[in-house]
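User: Show me a protein chain along with its predicted structure.
Assistant: Here is one chain, sequence first, then structure tokens.
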Amino acid sequence: MNSEYSYWERAKKVIPGGNMLLSKRAELFLPGKWPAYFSSAKGCNVIDLNGNSYVDMTIMGIGTNTLGYGCTEVDEAVINVARLGNLSTLNCFEEVLLAEKLVSLHPWAEMVRFCRAGGEANSIAVRIARAFKKKEKIALCGYHGWHDWYLASNLANKKALSEHLLEGLSTNGIPKDLTGTVLPFSYNDISEIANIIKNNDLAAIIMEVERSTPPSIGYLEEIRELCDRNNIVLIFDEISSGFRETLGGLHLKYSVEPDMCIFGKALGNGYAITAVLGKEEIMQTAQETFISSTFWTERIGPTAALKTLEIMQKTESYKKITNLGIYLKKTWQRIADKYNLEIIQKGIPALAGFNFTGSNALAYKTFITQEMLKRGYLASNICYLSTAHTTSIIDEYATNLDPIFEAIAECENGRNISDLIDGSICHSGFQRLN
């Protein structure tokens, strides 16, 4: 057994679930063979504990590193403030500069609160909206973290969140009194959210601007109008989508302004920093409800974000990763068409992905990961791009992917995919690990 997977087996004995993030579980990629741990990462290359180097053509730190791993300028800025002192009795001035910068990029917003993780940023936004409106009910669309308020969606219907990224999320430990406080709705279905509004007194609607598919014409505008007409706070969760197509939120592309907006992931290029932006009248309510945490005041996150934004603005990184994503999607389609394979593409270009149709989809995904790993790639059916990626890297990746698609085509014509997989098929969502 290789040392990486040895660590993973050890981890499951002392860490519930093996690690802190479901999306990094080895079982979601290649059970028994995925190199679960890294020793170093630079650009779009990751080196495991055995010294093997892989090109990352999958989740790039779960979408955190749009400037590539180990961006020298960002790292140097962080190292400098670490030497000066990361945390003290006094506040760091960098948080003021970052708040001003984010407001300048989003003129509709006037105030900002910072934290360090996406789930807690969503919880902060929901708490503020509820306090501001003095109402409890929230309508949601998309994935918004692990906290009680979100998982309460599954109290009334165990599958309520199944179309919102993850299936099988248990409500074990969620107070039953939260039943009915959160109401999921389907993306691009204006009649469904209109009906929820008609039958419920909502404090807020929280939604992702775009995930798998783009908004239909007029959809976001209708959401905005419904919120205005019914006195509802509109929150855009841009933890994933922010700074990938514009210098700021994806809502800038669609010219629809929320009342609050949440950013994270790409904001710090791998360093922990998230932000909740909003209109002053709403944001000031944060002083009327207790929202506070020691490590939200550390200095590294804001410093990393300031340097990251500076580089993004100077290099127009969001344009580069979008163009690379368009190129990658065309590449996937070209190879699929070559072998008469049906794939369904998803996601904005910088967060590209595809799915096979049919009952063998998960097996095909496992097979791709298995074979690409042998060729020196961390790969799956999704690819979050960075400025460290190039068209040449994508071309070389495609050359290695081609024979794998060819083998999948053979399986569509009668070959047994089970004969090609060396171990177990990857998990599809949340499952308990023993």
